[in-house]
Amino acid sequence: MGKWTRRGFIAAGVATGGVFAVGVALREGHRAPKLAQMVTEEGETLVNVWVKLAPDNTVTAIVPHSEMGQGVFTSMAQMLAEDMDADWNLVRFEQAPAHEAYANHALAREYLLGGASVPGFVQDTVNGAFLRMSQSMSLQITGGSTAVRFTGQGGMRVAGAAAREMLVKAAARTWKVPTRTLRTENSFIYHDASGRSAPYAEFAEVAGTLAPPTQPALKSPEAFTLMGTSVRRLDLAGKVDGSAEFGMDVTLPGMRYAAVRGAPIFGARAVSIDEQPAHAMSGVQKVVNGGEFVAVIADSYWQAEQAVAALDVTWNKTGREALNQDDIDTRFAADMARAVESGREQIDFKAGNARQATDRAPHRLEAEYTVPYLAHAAMEPLNATALVEDGNVQIWLGHQNPLGARDAIADTFDIPTEDITVHNRLIGGAFGRRGEVDFVLMAVRIAQDSDGPVKMIWSRTEDTRQDFYRPATRARIIAGLDEAKQPVSWDYQFVHKHEPVEASDPPYTIVNKLIHYAESENPIRFGAWRSVDHTQHGFFIESFIDELAHEAGADPLAYRRSLLQDKPRHLAALDAVAEASGWGRDLEDGRGLGVAIVESFGTVVAQVAEVDTGGPVPRVTRVWVAADPGFVVNPDGFSAQIEGGIIYGLSAALYGNITVENGAVAESNFHDYPVVRIDDAPEIEIALINSGAALGGGGEPGTPPIAPAVANAIFAATGTRLRSLPLALPSDGVAEAGPAAPRRA
Amino acid sequence: MMQMKINGQITELRVDPDMPLLWAIRETLNLPGTKYGCGISQCGACTIHLNGVPVRACSMPVSAAEGAEITTIEGVASADGGLHAVQQAWIEHQVPQCGYCQSGQIMSAVALLANNPAPSDQDIDDAMRGNICRCGAYGRIRAAIKTAAASLPSTAGEEQSNG
To answer: Do A426 and B37 touch (CB under 8 A)?
Structure first.
């Protein structure tokens, strides 16, 4: 690949076997000094997204994201093929290896940690596209609903367009005709005047000698033939015949199995282990004391799991042995009150003077809400297969951040990164959990004690009790209302602030806003959970705005509209979902419709839920959705993500409740951490809106609106306002009130 | 040593008779399409057919399968590799997202249609509620089962019940 030394934003060349390859890359030493300054370390190759054209005219997209259900290989290939005018039947994909060439740490630090966005002077250029892409691809992370909106838009499409331009230029040279007389279609180049045509591959060698364009032209949406269509997923064959290889399915010669027990109370360490019971069992090879965990290596997983269960482990004291969920909830409330009293609240957003406006307002409404801890509960329990041999580490697993996993291994075990190989595999659901490295380090630690490779598998109990949890939080909102009961102030306090920063800011036009939070110890591990802070803020904000509408005697959808006059995408989504759901129609007794709207990860999603409150738990019968991600690349695939986001959020809304008992997580499996099953899955009807706004994500935005939509529907059906999740109704059908009934003044 | 027929082949297993069938299928027989999800018959990821009946392999000891005929996801397609109607419908409706639970989902659906070629919505719920999908593909699963039912030769031309 000698051609790759070319400095510039797009690199191209002919590799071994006549494969023409195009990548988009930002390299050190580029002539633009301001850009060069952004490359903080010498010798780093920046973001690359590659397309390969083989002599048989097949096109391969090399995708630097992990597949965990979102269909990323298909959407990325689709975006590449669109601007390349590639024949979709000849398009393939490969997952990029966990290698620096596909990610960049320096730029990521600069832009992610710095919180800066792409500087204006490069925004509208190819360079800007790469920078935007590097923001999302930093560290090769899959998360934040970033693939389509950044990697796809800024990488795949640019690489495809550049490849096409170079191939056309090569054809023009070969045929000695002007480039403008050539056209491309389905991986062929046509010269209509002479009737000549030839496949792309014929021009690969010449194209590889050309200078890549710096600003390849991307198609305008009117010219799309692939983007905007529901091409079928490229990865389903193996997912219906059992042949798809997940991390769990990795098998190596001589491989043994490990079962683990993490410290029941986070932070505790195993001070002693009585190994005798385990050693008396057949197949047991070794007991490992990993400090924060213990493990047994055995010839089969079943033997290892039985043996680890038989170990008698003494854990040291953490001081949290008597801690229960009620203590945590009480402390949240106390820390919130103390923050206000002491004036030491952390200010999140501020506009106008909310407290003064509230004091002067003729009416006010106040409410408190709580949400519990949540586990991710992906279908594939955590696992990793590791081999430590001659100072080298190899690990096979499904990870959302394979480079981060590699670096964590390097840091923890003091091994040079070049001696570590991460083999990323399909992920059986992640939802944020597989961006953590705890289980990666655990597998390597176990492998250090094993002769040959060892596959570590967590039981479902471990997966549930050793998670990084969506935090339990509490919120208090106070609104000042004018004579017409329109809000003049919004004083919003909560505990725990993570990402995205804008999640706590309501979309509604309210002149005086004070959004602030209190620090309160979170005694169990925090983790990003599908849509992160939007899950709780969506519930708090969209529940309270519904309460304000009721207070004003207004229709909740019309009330929202009146406060979103400067947000045309929100208005369009509300109108679409109102029409689809027949908002305002008469319903049977015990039924109700509730609405909620949340913008997250660049996508506006409005939902109307219909509930039937006749049973022991509210039954969500139907959900109507209007979603605007700017432009929908693959309508069916995007819809699948929204459907999945709703079911995931509905599991949390109805059932999800992780609790701490005696310092440890009490729940263990699907019997005590129930999730939505087919018989309580609502019918979901989705209207897609192509507003033309900047591309938004698909994986997460479906989740935040469902809990408040259901709670608001329960209120519409019963007159009872539920302010705590999960939304269980007692068996007599009368709902419990939330933590605090609204106080009026 | 225990003998059973797995995907049409007579197979001998020399493992602890108490070992759950799931681990024998995955580790000893190297048929990894059957998945581990919960270990206590709560999620259905490990669903296989034992003498034609869907069972959870995670909770059944190998000894209980002695002499039985077992079908796993690897044995659902026809011998020439042609996909089962359920698998075809799964692709037509683009059911799988992450795909991890789908072996179990498909095994439950195949068993349902073998016994009930025109299931109602209630029949589908009853047969499938033991299979959790955390990607939330339930609506597509329901639709795909109806498509598969309509395409099965024995039900060709029959009215579909909507229960």
So the answer is: no
> In chain B, positions 63-102, which contact chain A (CB-CB < 8 Å)?
72-74, 76-77, 83, 87, 90-91, 94-102
DSSP letters spanning A128-151: HHHHHHHHHHGGG---TT-IIIII
Q: What are phi and psi of A27, to 5 degrees?
A: -120, 155
A322-368 tens-digit pLDDT: 999 999 999 999 999 999 999 989 999 999 999 999 999 999 999 99
Nearest to A678 among B43, B98, B128 (CB): B128
| Domain residue ranges in chain B | 2-75, 85-155
Judged by CB atoms closer than 8 Å, whether chains meet at B40 and A427 is answered as no
Among the residues of A390-477, which ranges form H helices? 402-413, 438-448, 460-465
Judge if the upstream peptide bond of residue A55 is cis by omega within 30 degrees of 0: no
ipTM above 0.90, yes or no: yes
Superfamily the domain B85-155 falls into: [2Fe-2S]-binding domain (1.10.150.120)
- CA dihedral (A477, A482, A485, A488) in degrees, to 10, reads -40
Angstrom CA distances, A10 to A48, A193, A214, stand at 9, 31, 7
Task: Check A669 against B38: CB less than 8 A apart.
Answer: yes
**Count of Cβ atoms closer than 10 Å to residue A661 Cβ:** 11
* B94/A428 Cβ within 8 A: no
Kindly state whether B45 is in contact with chain A, defined as any CB-CB distance less than 8 angstroms: yes
Contact A460 B37 (CB under 8 A): yes
Respond yes or no on whether the N-terminal peptide bond of residue A381 is cis (omega within 30° of 0): no
pLDDT at position A34, please?
Answer: 37
How many C-beta neighbours within 10 Å does residue A187 have? 23
- Strand A293-298 and strand A256-262: the pairing is antiparallel
Q: Could you tell me the domains of chain A?
A: 2-240 (3.30.365.10), 247-318+382-457 (3.30.365.10), 328-373+469-744 (3.30.365.10)
Whether B114 and chain A come into contact, CB under 8 Å, resolves to no
| pLDDT tens-digit map of A447-491 | 999 999 999 999 999 999 999 999 999 999 999 999 999 999 999
Q: Is B97 within 8 Å of A232 when comparing Cβ atoms?
A: no
B133 CB neighbours in chain A (<8 A) are 379, 647, 678
- Full-model pTM: 0.91
Q: Does B42 touch chain A (CB under 8 A)?
A: yes
Q: How many CA atoms lie less than 13 Å away from A557 in the CB half-sphere?
A: 23
Fold of B2-75: Ubiquitin-like (UB roll) (3.10.20)
Chain A positions touching B23 (Cβ under 8 A) are 300-302
CB–CB of B137 and A239 under 8 A?
A: no
